[in-house]
């Protein structure tokens, strides 16, 4: 069973947590952001978006495509953004409600374009990802308890020239998980098709398809301070259809943001808020979440780092900033790495970058399965990350110091010497213990007998087992056929 | 002050991004009778070359490279004003670069642009989300030796293939070499669409561009 909304310790909630920013820090970030939005503004070439900003009272230069957004417009938008966003699932019981409090959930990464193939000897090679890879990835994410959502992790690149790759991805996702998902690379003009597909899942029930949207979307402003046409249109259409929209700034401190994390925290905040304002202007109450994949640009080589400690700090800060605004935080980057293979670097960078935003109470942390800052996805890494997530969830529980937890009766009865293994209390609380699937806790002897396998190799075996034994599909055979036929029709139109 | 010495000072002033020393040394060189072209070719260009080498070795960071390139451009512009009519520095290889239509991701392309100009290429940037026809028009206008295109998205990289067709249709494909880059591009992709080279990063783009123009 998926463990959802694991509380990190904040205020009156039990558990372990951290608050990096205090209230005056948050005020300062907010004021600087308002300064940026009011005086510099945000650029977009989309006339519809500019008109929405203008009608709300923003100072808009239609020729230059710049909207300067006054604080009251931002504050109105923040007030009308919901504090809870429901991500509906094919299986209603697996709906995930993202809440603007310190509640932690985990997502895999989306969307990579390369797939790391792994064989039984631990050899690997990388190649362009395909629809078949995506299906496997969906199956793994559906199976892994750590992930509350099963976002499509890789692009169906075998379809980019031959058909509607986006619809293949959506269809593969709908057919291979009963968890909610966010489609990471939507096309603004694909919305009708995504809706039609959701409708097919609901047996043609249009009302249900509107009420419980299945294809959540995401869009990214272009740093610094721009939102491209496709993004503004995704935001506007998602809002008008009340489809949850994840807004993720991917600013790079030192490149597309100021070199100091503090400065880039302000510019990325301006970008995300401008996008959220647009959503609320298109439809009051539109479900939006505040995400981040902001990191540093490594100034030695000009490449965005996915394993940098600074990235973890950004995600932790965004968790607090979004909570300050009462908007759920997701997706926030964490469990990331720059490593190309599931190795020591991957383990270390992923552990650290997952831990810090989790302690800060980011509501949806995405990064599972990611390698090479998101370029590459590995199924083995998905399974390893599931263990990383499980261990962090265990730590978030912290310690709950109460009389009943101290178990004084047991301590007295066992007394000096003896053991607690066979106590009823021990059996009862057994499942509370952390229990990784692929990380080996044996002594050397048993480990040697099992073939001296490292975590990646054990993960590979687990992947094989899951693919063999887990059926992730929650849809009737007819519905799957309908979806396939729908996509095939669109492919034909595409090729015409 | 010996001739080599003054050129060495100009070169080092570029490497150290020392604006005052650069201005002073260039002024001295002019007084001593050096021509603007000689100053560019023996002082400034070797300085940028060294900057490029140091970046390659990881000893200089991008901001230092960009600031050196800005300084170099400033000094070259002021020298050009002093150049006698008809005289110019040795013609460099000309590159037209841009991020293809539909794609707004241009920081990688910008880094490639800087490194190419640092390494002596004359670079014309058609920008991001650039109409494929603008690559072709620019290439014709400036007599490009290389047309380089960048794409970050699997959906927009198709533009790199279309660009090959457009260059052929315009009748200039045999006069230019083409290069592709960006996250989804690969060696295989370049081969498949008939591009002349693929570069994984900015430094590689420079060496590939050198190979392409040496072969011309």
What can you see in these coordinates?
The complex is a heterodimer of chains A (496) and B (216). Chain A is an alpha/beta fold and 496 residues long. Chain A is 44% helix and 14% strand. Chain A has a domain of 338 residues: Trimethylamine methyltransferase-like (TIM Barrel), CATH 3.20.20.480. Chain A has 18 helices and 21 strands. In chain A, the strands form six sheets. Chain A has a seven-stranded parallel β-sheet. In chain A, helix 12 crosses helix 17. The two termini of chain A are 45 Å apart. Helix content of chain B is 56%, strand content 10%. Chain B has a five-stranded parallel β-sheet, sandwiched between helices. In chain B, helix 4 crosses helix 5. The model of chain B has no long low-confidence stretch (mean pLDDT 90). Classes of the chains: A alpha/beta (496), B alpha/beta (216). Chains A and B meet through loops of A and helix 5 of B.
Topology summary:
The complex is a heterodimer of chains A (496) and B (216).
Chain A: E1 6-7, H1 23-39, E2 42-43, H2 47-55, E3 59-61, E4 66-68, H3 71-80, E5 84-87, E6 96-99, E7 103-104, E8 106-108, E9 114-118, E10 124-128, H4 131-143, H5 165-175, E11 182-183, H6 191-201, H7 206-211, E12 216-219, H8 229-240, E13 245-249, E14 252-253, H9 261-282, E15 288-292, E16 295-298, E17 303-304, H10 309-325, E18 329-333, H11 344-359, E19 364-368, E20 370-371, E21 376-377, H12 379-396, H13 403-406, H14 408-414, H15 424-429, H16 444-449, H17 455-469, H18 477-495
Parallel strand pairs in A: 8-19, 9-21, 11-12, 12-13, 13-15, 14-16, 15-18, 18-19
Antiparallel strand pairs in A: 1-7, 2-4, 3-4, 5-6, 9-10, 16-17, 20-21
Helix pairs in contact in A: 1-9, 3-9, 4-5, 5-6, 5-18, 8-9, 10-11, 11-12, 12-17
Chain B: H1 3-15, H2 19-31, H3 36-56, H4 62-81, E1 94-99, H5 107-118, E2 122-125, H6 132-142, E3 146-150, H7 158-169, E4 177-181, H8 187-193, E5 197-198, H9 202-214
Parallel strand pairs in B: 1-2, 1-3, 3-4, 4-5
Helix pairs in contact in B: 1-2, 1-3, 3-4, 4-5, 5-9, 6-7
